[in-house]
Amino acid sequence: MPRTADTKEQILDAAEALFSAHGIEGVSLRSLTKEAKVNLASVHYHFGSKEAVVKAAFARCIRPVNRERLALLDQLEKEAADGHLGVEAVLFALFSPTMKLARGSSERQSFVRLCARLYSEPADYLEPFFEDEFREVMKRFEAAFARALPGLPQHELRSRMRFAVGVMAHTMLDCGRTHNWTAGKGDETDAQAILASMVRFVAGGMLARPGRMTPAREEAVA
Amino acid sequence: MPRTADTKEQILDAAEALFSAHGIEGVSLRSLTKEAKVNLASVHYHFGSKEAVVKAAFARCIRPVNRERLALLDQLEKEAADGHLGVEAVLFALFSPTMKLARGSSERQSFVRLCARLYSEPADYLEPFFEDEFREVMKRFEAAFARALPGLPQHELRSRMRFAVGVMAHTMLDCGRTHNWTAGKGDETDAQAILASMVRFVAGGMLARPGRMTPAREEAVA
DNA sequence: GTCTATAGGGGGATAGAC
DNA sequence: GTCTATCCCCCTATAGAC
């Protein structure tokens, strides 16, 4: 065994890799402990339950990302203390920390998919946990977007933030399906190009003039 | 029993409701047949396996939607045979058929979440199935967007289409979490407002000038 | 802290009567 | 076509030796 990592971290490493590949319900503690090369019972000794492993794995994945998001936003707001706050800059602060994960070691690449998957996973116990982990980020970025997009009604702003999250989550999922992103040759240039495209696209959506569709279109859905 | 539906359809009705609520792995054939008020063995008689039930439920849900998408696009291309094809109109053809589902009977509302969930479900056997079901729609809409957005490089166009799908999929998932969309009072006005917001947002992204981020931002991710 | 062994419950699938 | 009964698998969790 080349690593000196302790049992707890070996379990979390395996949890990240397997949960992202097969979903929570698709991973048994047996497959998990086999992958981690630890005993089945040790997972209960260290975590107490499968549910606790899921939360711990997710927390270890997302906390540094959200910390970096807030740090980037701090820096951004300090630079622009007096004047204009750019939408693209705010989006960059929101997106780039996750994108960075997609370029790390192959063990870390699966993190990205894990985060995106967990958001759509219907486990009831995850929803309040998610809310806790993201509350600060959501609050701070809502304020930043409100400043970058003056005049946009709050309800519309919140909808657009959800759309932005949708773009990111979906892109994270798609990054795991390599055949979709084969324009670049590898991870290094790709991640940067995808991030740039994402920021441009979402900025375009954020900046769109809010308003109604043409009447003809509205009738068609009524 | 008020309905005269046969066993097969009762199973599919229950499958839609339960899969969308709990995910594929979260639903056992036992819970499925209990909800459907049919015998456990009947699911194997009619479908052969759980996997076949999943595919059948998904096909029954998505085929009419994709048919309507293509019909709307047909009509749109006929109207605009000579001149300009509007991005918002194409987006409307792509999005509105799913949005309509979200306003039907409560049994049908869960369809929407089902479709969104299945896209992120990591079941290997679903990916080729998905590809088959959406090939025609993707081909036709890629051509339509190419026409509506002349000059946009094909690779960028494909990225943006994935972003658009991400917005829709994420919105479908969120529609099930009612507390997120409580601005309107019910489903009727909400669905229309959400659809309008979505179309405006994605159109803004589609129409964004493709290009690079500012050099400072690019360095930060390198 | 780490292991073996096992409890106790569900899971998908199937055989065969009706 | 529909049912009951059952096979055999895998699951999480725990007890208790080391």
Give the fraction of residues assigned to helices of chain A. over 70%
Class per helix and strand makeup of chain A: mainly alpha
Give the oligomeric state of the chains in this entry, treating copies of one chain as homo and distinct chains as hetero: homodimer
Uncertain runs of chain A are none
**Count of helical segments of chain A?**
10
Helix and strand element order of chain A: HHHHHHHHHH
Number of strands of chain A: 0
Strand content of chain A: under 5%
* Known CATH architecture of the domain at 62-210 in chain A: Orthogonal Bundle
Which chain pair shows the most residues in contact?
A-B, 63 and 63 residues
Categorize the overall geometry of chain A.
elongated
Mind telling me the CATH class of the domain at 62-210 in chain A? Mainly Alpha
The average pLDDT score of chain A comes to 87
State the separation between the terminal residues of chain A, measured CA to CA: 64 Å
The CATH topology of the domain at 62-210 in chain A is what? Tetracycline Repressor, domain 2
* CATH superfamily (homologous) name of the domain at 62-210 in chain A: Tetracycline Repressor, domain 2
Q: What Rg of chain A do the Cα atoms give?
A: 20 Å
Q: Biggest β-sheet of chain A: count, sense, barrel?
A: none
